[in-house]
Amino acid sequence: MTEISRVALITGAARGIGRAIALALAQPGLTLYLNDVVIGEEAEKTRQEVEAKGADARLLQFNVADTAAVQAGIDRIIQESGRLDLLVNNAGITRDNLVMRMKEADWDQVLEVNLKGAYNCIRAAAKPMIKQRGGRIINISSVVGVMGNPGQANYVASKAGLIGLTKAVARELASRNITVNAVAPGFIETEMTAALPEKVRAEMQAQIPLNRFGTPEEVAQAVVFLAGDAAAYMTGQVLHVNGGMLMV
Ligand code: NAD
């Protein structure tokens, strides 16, 4: 975190990569809002783990695709904490199928959560960031948003869209001292990839020069870097964390 960064919001933070980002950022003096659409045992466990690292952790339920709910959530942050220094757009879903068989509802849902969700959060977060003359926005994209992947047209479109969104908003907000970057993870060990059949996992691993899936903690370190003072001169960039699977 930058020296002035005191309040952060991570979407989809109950588990997986979002949880790892929260734990990696957690430190005394930081208020961390952990958003998820489902606030249950997982989210509460994450909150306790983040608090154990000295941060003030608060659960914040909303669906990132629900524009009014996002605005209400960010309004609550400003009412309670007076500012918002860091937004990490991490919430994401998959509804995989070949494009010929992909249901319109599955296309819409993935775009609504993964891409419109980020737009909703950026729009609501940019206002306080502009007012306080600084902030950081980090969007979690994916390697497949750059490479493509069969069976994931909706997800790939959303993740490629996030990269375009990152670049456009980076140009819009740079003069306000707000940086906007993306992290593009490769295949990471989370519930999202645990659901894949063993044969598919083996095929994926064969494409990775480092010959293993990454960990959520390894993705989180890229976010910590982009959120910190060391990345002050970076904006509109995509940081790839993929074991060498794609070299750009
Ligand atoms: P995950 O499914 O383990 O966790 C995602 C979290 O987001 C869950 O807690 C879920 O409840 C929450 N969420 C889902 N929809 C939401 C909504 N509408 N509003 C708020 N929260 C919502 O997934 P993960 O693997 O930790 O993925 C996190 C991000 O990283 C996603 O954007 C994903 O696309 C991206 N990513 C993952 C991988 C991977 O290999 N796991 C690779 C590249 C990118």
Beta content: 15-25%
- Order of SSEs, N→C? EHEHEHEHEHHEHHHE
Secondary structural class:
alpha/beta
- Write down the Rg: 17 Å
CATH architecture name:
3-Layer(aba) Sandwich
Low-confidence stretches: none
Give the strand line-up of the largest sheet: 3-2-1-4-5-6-7
Termini Cα gap: 27 Å
Give the proportion of residues in helices: 40-55%
Number of helices: 9
CATH superfamily: NAD(P)-binding Rossmann-like Domain
Mean pLDDT: 96
Number of strands: 7
* Ligands present: nicotinamide-adenine-dinucleotide
Stated plainly, the CATH topology is called Rossmann fold
What is the 3D form? globular
**Number of folding domains?**
1
Relevant terms:
alpha/beta; 248 residues; binds nicotinamide-adenine-dinucleotide; 7 strands; globular; single chain; 9 helices
Summarize the structure.
By secondary structure, the protein is of the alpha/beta class. It contains 9 helices and 7 strands.
Describe the structure.
- The structure is a single chain.
- β1, α1 and β2 (31-36) form a beta-alpha-beta unit.
- The protein has a 7-stranded parallel β-sheet, with helices on both faces.
- α1 (16-25) crosses α9 (216-227), α3 (67-81) packs parallel to α4 (104-131) and α4 packs parallel to α6 (153-173).
- It is of the alpha/beta class and 248 residues long.
- It is built from 9 helices and 7 strands; from the N terminus they run βαβαβαβαβααβαααβ.
- The chain is 46% helix and 15% strand.
- 42% of the residues are buried.
- The chain has a single domain (7-241), classed as NAD(P)-binding Rossmann-like Domain (Rossmann fold, 3-Layer(aba) Sandwich), CATH 3.40.50.
- The longest helix has 28 residues, at 104-131.
- Nicotinamide-adenine-dinucleotide (NAD) binds at residues 11-12, 14-18, 35-38, 63-65, 90-93, 113, 117, 140, 142, 185, 187-188, 190-193.
